[in-house]
Amino acid sequence: MPKAPAPTSRYWKLQRQLTRLNTFLFRKTGGKVGGSYFGGAPVLLLHHVGRKSGEARISPLIYLDDAPRLVVVASKGGVDAHPAWFHNLTAMATTEVELPGGERRRVRPHVAEGAERARLWDRAVAIYKTYAAYATYTERTIPVVVLEPADATPTE
């Protein structure tokens, strides 16, 4: 399996700039614009805290509505490492997300396994086909993260 080249600091600088732009557009238009960076798939803003820095961060992420839950996929991190937001999120008991239209929800994350993961992965690939392509050249299983309402009982 060919390895993807390691991203450079220039790449990460561009990623941060695109994230800031996407966040600005998302908020300015109530979520109507900001999904174009992700090929038009529905996007939410995930609020999390850097594990090492302690800094507040926002990550625009594609999501599935699996009412009352939301689902995100930890796709692009590295060939053999999950993205930083995934590690930050799974280290938190609860956090907040912003949905299109300005709705905010407190959520509690859990990583889907087995049949639940398979069902949600198929749905994610149906709306964002590049997940399937990325899965063919990464050495890791791409996690599917379920965001339960923070006030609900977990359904694992």
UniProtKB/TrEMBL annotation:
Domain of life of the source: Bacteria
A Pfam family it matches: F420H2_quin_red
Any single Gene Ontology cellular-component annotation: plasma membrane
Annotated catalysed reactions: oxidized coenzyme F420-(gamma-L-Glu)(n) + a quinol + H(+) = reduced coenzyme F420-(gamma-L-Glu)(n) + a quinone
Listed InterPro entries: F420H2_quin_Rdtase, Split_barrel_FMN-bd
GO molecular function: coenzyme F420 binding; oxidoreductase activity
Family: Belongs to the F420H(2)-dependent quinone reductase family.
Name of the protein this chain belongs to: Nitroreductase family deazaflavin-dependent oxidoreductase
UniProt organism field: Amycolatopsis mediterranei (strain S699) (Nocardia mediterranei)
